Amino acid sequence: MSNRKSSNQLETKHLGGGDIARAFEDFMRAFEAFKETNDERLAQIERRMASDVVTNEKLERINEAISEHKRIVDELALKSARPRLGRDRAASPSAYEHRAAFESYVRKGDASGLLKLEAKALSAGSNPDGGYLVPDETERVIARSLKDISPIRAIAGIRQVSANVYKKPFAITGPGTGWVGETDARPQTSTPTLSELSFPTMELYAMPAATATLLEDAAVNIDQWIAEEVRIAFAEQEGTAFVNGDGVNKPQGFLNYPKVDNTTWSWGNIGYLPTGTAGAFDATNPSDDLVDLIYSLKAGYRANAHWVMNRSVQAEIRKFKDANGNYIWQPPAVPGGQPSLMNFPIAESEDMPDIAADSYSIAFGDFSRGYLIVDRLGIRVLRDPYSAKPYVLFYTTKRVGGGVQDFDAIKLLKFGLS
Prior knowledge:
Blueprint: H1 2-12, H2 20-48, H3 53-81, H4 93-108, H5 112-120, E1 132-133, H6 136-149, H7 151-155, E2 157-161, E3 165-173, E4 193-200, E5 202-206, E6 209-210, H8 212-216, H9 222-244, E7 259-261, E8 270-274, H10 286-296, H11 299-302, E9 306-309, H12 311-317, E10 329-330, E11 340-341, E12 344-348, E13 359-365, H13 367-370, E14 371-376, E15 380-384, E16 392-404, E17 410-415
Parallel strand pairs: 2-14, 7-8, 8-17, 9-12
Antiparallel strand pairs: 1-15, 3-4, 5-16, 6-16, 9-13, 10-11, 11-12, 13-17, 14-16, 15-16
């Protein structure tokens, strides 16, 4: 009875402060309790071909507790690593001038300082109708925060551009090659077949609101406030688009490309491996599905490969062991780190689907080569004191695109018969 009570205390515990070390200890204790309970479940199956209902329920509760503790640890780690915007007067005169002019615009609606800067720089890219560029330091902080929050941005390739579209040529077929002797004639190689990938940038916006009291408070760091307000909104919208976006006024997600069985893979498609079971892993050797997916990826891509899945899929995989009885899912070594599966890190994306019939719930690949995110330089803010009086709205926009750039670098696991 005492064991049951301590288990429930472990499962329902929530942290209030900011003690990341204590949160990580609770997470690790939950994982140890999970392994102990799962070992008990497996032993029951060996003894009588079925596990006890109470044991199954206990295992699921602890599994949920692990996910909750992991979420808390991630939030605390992200908060502790969050960059701060300072008021460094040692910055370059132009940077300080821009920051001061931007603050005057945000607080009072005075755009004269920003207009002078634009005239000095001979810039016609920003105006009262399209908003004004945030200071470079603020843009860098938002960019770093997005990379910390967005799981796909953290592992994908990123390219910054100044135009609305980034075009990238690629060779569908490589040039002809061969071996020749030192004095042999060199036959002319065949001309490679070239095509072009196009990544248009789309407008992403957030609209934080401020009260007059906040804007009048000199102690409030306006740059920091805007960065804090928009980073979560931007990260959530980006994360969804990079996985499931349809490419219409948003990036095209890697799950939105044509998918084919990996045995018939061709350029322009994402290859998948079926589990052979609708809505489930293989019943006899579930971890074999994961091993097959790893080796469906060419060796050159595996060195920097990541798993991408959501928490519920991880919760299912935590129960799996290898042939030596070791758990194939391992917790992160440090707070804020990534868990691993078969020694490959896991990028946790809640935009990935749950396991269901014919779902593509697990991706594996080198996303730095496989998926490209294109950021147009510049984040703009347009002050709107009229639409929601007495509040002041700040229409904040950035332009971002994305899509698959190497169709051989990402593979999917399909929970279906074929």
